[in-house]
Amino acid sequence: MMERVTFLIGGASSGKSDLAERWAVSTGLPCRYIATAEAQDAEMASKIEAHQKNRGEGWQVVEAPLALAEALPAADHDGVTLLDGITLWLSNIMHAEADIAPRIDAFLGTIERARGPLIIVSDEVGMGVVPDTRLGRRYRDALGKLNQQIAARSDCVVGVMAGLPFVLKGKLPDA
Questions:
Q1: Would residue 51 show up in a list of annotated catalytic residues for this protein?
Q2: Distant-in-sequence, close-in-space partners of 165: CB < 8 Å, separation ≥ 6
Q3: In angstroms, rounded to a whole number, what is the distance separating the alpha carbons of residues 88 and 101?
Q4: pTM reported for the whole predicted model
Q5: Which of 4, 11, 30, 51 is catalytic?
Q6: For the segment 38-73, what is each residue's pLDDT rounded down to a tens digit?
Q7: Boundaries of domain holding 140
Q8: Is residue 94 one of the residues assigned to a domain?
Q9: Structural domain includes residue 165
Q10: Which residue spans within the chain are E strands per DSSP?
Q11: Would 98 be classed as within a structural domain?
């Protein structure tokens, strides 16, 4: 049984996405994947391809590098939605030099209205080295605040380290 909103957070390459995908599939429901990554170079294209291969067939994919609030209501269906991830979405908005506050507010509103199950993945960036650029610090601070806001609206919050989940709020899904 999945909670209405489950939030997975951890460091880069910590196993968050793999865990989220396994949990989504374990529900036995139709799976929808909302992707925020864009293949802007060969390395990212390779990472996206690897994620697609690992996920396998049967997923409905919605690409939403910027229009996340608009993609989530469309994802409110009779299945499970996996949103991967917040980290790149926020980066995309900042690189597009868009006003982030209204986009974040709209996104947070969709979480509150989601029927679920909805699984959201994000990176934890506040436990590392202090970025040496103003933009890096602004991004770290914005993502940290956004992660806190998502966690507050989530029924279950799970940290992931070395591929292992640890519960921060709620209880682990029966997967």
A1: yes
A2: 8, 19, 158, 159, 172
A3: 16
A4: 0.92
A5: 51
A6: 887 888 778 878 877 777 788 989 999 999 999 987
A7: 20-169
A8: yes
A9: yes
A10: 5-10, 31-35, 59-63, 80-84, 118-123, 156-161, 164-169
A11: yes
